[in-house]
């Protein structure tokens, strides 16, 4: 399996990676104003990591974005979601009830709980898709190296 | 059936055709990976059908900016978001199982795997 | 191709034809446009209740947030399953 792509592909991917991450965060944060949301932004986040992996090669990317760090990010995403839900119960309403103020409609810091939940869902989905890809690539490398 | 063919919309016909193609791939193909692909096509057909349930000519996307009142039905879209994610999960797990099956039995043919052998 | 496989293909195609006929006959393709009462409520009161202009986000993160939690859990379990199934250990796989 080819480890690294050519210099052209690598340079283009390096320039594209921050733009993709920015676009993913735009989709997540503006999820309640324009089309998008947590899941869509999370998938773009995972795809940006896959692009970097495919162009740079396994060694450098797995040293920078470690498997254990991604697993911790994913667990944080789910646990914070459940934690916010229980916070809703503690503060008087039902599970996952809205306890933040609604604010001015149309601005980013509005709509109560929606922005926070979008953020954590986005990190969870991005980390999950990257972890699935890491598992597939590691299996392929180990199975070929025997 | 002729009334159903005449009165249904194009999106309904396309969605049902996708469903039938995916079902055919799931049942009739012997290769395991082709079966998974058929499952994906089936899911796409169902998602398209449900989303097109809320559409009519002249309505716009459900982003309620100032002055927009006639919007598409947003409920099936929210449900299909979950459906798409679960389709991805099913595909990932099915493909990992297929990788393990191939390592163990060295074959991807359903007839060989279920012991019917060559006919 | 043997006779058995030909009969199987014919049966599969017959099943698909029966399903197609059942779908086009049994569905209620009415001329008017149905909309659920719940969707009317979401469209009328969504922005006032939640403050989110995007109605789809308002539905799946406010009115139906529990389903989103279930979906996040399914994704979590799927990632766990893939990581377990693809953890290749040399000593275990050779002696099956």
From TrEMBL, chain A:
Membrane topology category: Multi-pass membrane protein
GO cellular component: plasma membrane
Superkingdom in the source lineage: Bacteria
Compartment annotation: Cell membrane
UniProt keywords, alphabetically: Cell membrane, Membrane, Transmembrane, Transmembrane helix
Transmembrane segment boundaries: 12-33, 39-58, 70-91, 111-136
One Pfam family cited in the UniProt record for this chain: MnhB
Occurrences of domain Na+/H+ antiporter MnhB subunit-related protein (ranges): 8-130
Entry-linked InterPro entries: CPA3_antiporter_subunitB, MnhB
Protein family: Belongs to the CPA3 antiporters (TC 2.A.63) subunit B family.
PANTHER family given in the database record: NA(+)/H(+) ANTIPORTER SUBUNIT B (PTHR33932), NA(+)_H(+) ANTIPORTER SUBUNIT B (PTHR33932:SF4)
Protein name: Na+/H+ antiporter MnhB subunit-related protein domain-containing protein
UniProtKB/TrEMBL annotation, chain C:
InterPro entries in the record: CPA3_antiporter_subunitB, MrpA_C/MbhE
Membrane-spanning segments: 6-25, 69-86
Key words of the record: Membrane, Transmembrane, Transmembrane helix
UniProt domain MrpA C-terminal/MbhE: residue ranges: 31-87
Signal peptide per UniProt: none
Protein name listed in UniProt: MrpA C-terminal/MbhE domain-containing protein
């Amino acid at each position: 399996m080819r480890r690294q792509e050519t210099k052209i592909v690598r340079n283009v991917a390096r320039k594209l990676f921050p733009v993709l991450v920015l676009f993913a965060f735009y989709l997540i944060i503006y999820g309640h104003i324009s089309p998008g949301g947590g899941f869509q932004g999370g998938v773009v986040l995972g795809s940006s990591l896959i692009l970097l992996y495919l162009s740079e090669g396994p060694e450098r990317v797995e040293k920078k974005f470690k498997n254990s760090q991604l697993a911790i990010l994913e667990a944080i995403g789910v646990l914070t979601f459940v934690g916010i839900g229980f916070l809703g119960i503690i503060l008087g309403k039902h599970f996952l009830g809205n306890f933040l103020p609604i604010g001015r409609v149309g601005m980013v810091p509005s709509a109560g709980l929606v922005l926070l939940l979008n953020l954590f869902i986005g990190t969870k989905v991005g980390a999950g898709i990257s972890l699935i890809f890491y598992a597939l690539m590691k299996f392929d490398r180990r199975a070929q190296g025997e | 059936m002729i009334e159903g063919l005449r009165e249904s919309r194009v999106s309904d016909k396309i969605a049902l055709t996708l469903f039938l193609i995916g079902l055919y791939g799931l049942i009739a193909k012997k290769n395991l990976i082709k079966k998974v692909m058929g499952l994906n096509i089936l899911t796409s057909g169902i998602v398209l059908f449900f989303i097109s349930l809320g559409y009519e000519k002249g309505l716009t996307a459900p982003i309620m900016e100032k002055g927009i009142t006639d919007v598409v039905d947003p409920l099936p879209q929210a449900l299909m978001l979950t459906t798409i994610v679960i389709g991805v999960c099913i595909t990932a797990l099915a493909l990992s199982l297929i990788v393990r099956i191939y390592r163990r039995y060295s074959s991807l043919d359903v007839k060989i795997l279920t012991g019917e052998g060559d006919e | 191709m043997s006779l058995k496989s030909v009969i199987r293909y014919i049966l599969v195609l017959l099943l698909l034809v029966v399903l197609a006929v059942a779908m086009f006959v049994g569905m209620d393709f009415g001329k008017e446009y149905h909309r659920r009462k719940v969707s009317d409520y979401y469209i009328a009161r969504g922005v006032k209740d939640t403050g989110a202009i995007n109605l789809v986000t308002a539905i799946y993160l406010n009115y139906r947030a529990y389903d989103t939690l279930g979906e996040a859990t399914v994704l979590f379990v799927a990632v766990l399953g893939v990581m377990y199934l693809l953890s290749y250990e040399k000593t275990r796989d050779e002696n099956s």
